[in-house]
Amino acid sequence: MSKRICVYCSSSNILEEKYVKAAREFAEAASLLGYTIVCGGSVMGLMGVIIDTMIEKGSPVEGFIPGFMEDMEIHHKGIKQLGVVGTMSERKELLRQNSDVVIAFPGGLGTMEEFMETFTLKRLGQFDGTVILFNQDGFYDQLLSLFEHFVKNKFLNSNYRDSLVVVNSVEDLIVAVKNSKKERLEAKHYLPE
Ligand code: AMP
């Protein structure tokens, strides 16, 4: 089944090669499987790598970029379907509305903000897609420890924490995307225990 995959990822252009390689391998596999990538539409960092790879393979990419970023000339000029929106919030909403699954690749503050918003909206029944954290080489181990700390101290329901799909390799990431399904949660099931 053709899936629409939203990617949140680093905007840094000076990352270690292993992060670039994994992003490229993921996009190659997504292209072979006939998936569509939905993203922020910028040319920067890992997003730029994923978009370049998809376009090279002739595969579909849809982007949503706020006007101020287009003015900064950081939009990817190869994307045919690029929606220019007013704000970062609108962009995040459109990314969710147009995707079946979201993946947080290794990233910084922007990636974290996008991931956390979607992960919390899922708990409130406001996003139906699967949320995946790509914990490449333990990149997000400290975040997962923080979630464990939340659970231990009863600030987070363990079932909800466990509903997050965490994968460590590109192979497992692709399997997780293949297995992903839309599911609406009811907030009452995920109150802290
Ligand atoms: P970063 O992880 O900081 O490199 O940022 C990665 C992506 O997050 C980029 O595509 C940015 O456009 C986006 N981003 C940065 N700051 C924010 C924010 N406050 N809200 C939503 N997205 C953001």
Brief rundown of the structure:
It contains eight helices and seven strands.
Question: Could you walk me through the main structural features you see in this protein, from its secondary elements to its overall organization?
Answer:
This protein has a seven-stranded parallel sheet with strand order 4-3-2-1-5-6-7, sandwiched between helices. It starts with a strand and ends in a 14-residue tail after the last helix. It is built from eight helices and seven strands; from the N terminus they run βαβαβαβαβαβααβα. The mean pLDDT is 95. The protein is α/β, with parallel strands linked by helices. The structure holds adenosine monophosphate. The site of adenosine monophosphate (AMP) has 15 residues, from helix 4 and helix 5. Adenosine monophosphate binds next to helix 4 and helix 5.
Radius of gyration: 16 Å
Shape: globular
Q: What percent of residues adopt helix (DSSP H or I)?
A: 40-55%
Strand content: 15-25%
Spatial strand sequence of the major β-sheet: 4-3-2-1-5-6-7
Average pLDDT value?
A: 95
Low-confidence stretches: none
Bound molecules: adenosine monophosphate
Secondary structure tally: strands = 7
SS element count, helices: 8
Structural class from helices and strands?
alpha/beta
* First-to-last CA distance: 37 Å
Note the main sheet.
Answer: 7 strands, parallel
Give the topology:
Layout: E1 4-8, H1 17-32, E2 36-39, H2 45-56, E3 61-66, H3 67-71, E4 81-85, H4 88-97, E5 101-104, H5 109-123, E6 130-134, H6 141-152, H7 158-163, E7 165-167, H8 170-179
Parallel strand pairs: 1-2, 1-5, 2-3, 3-4, 5-6, 6-7
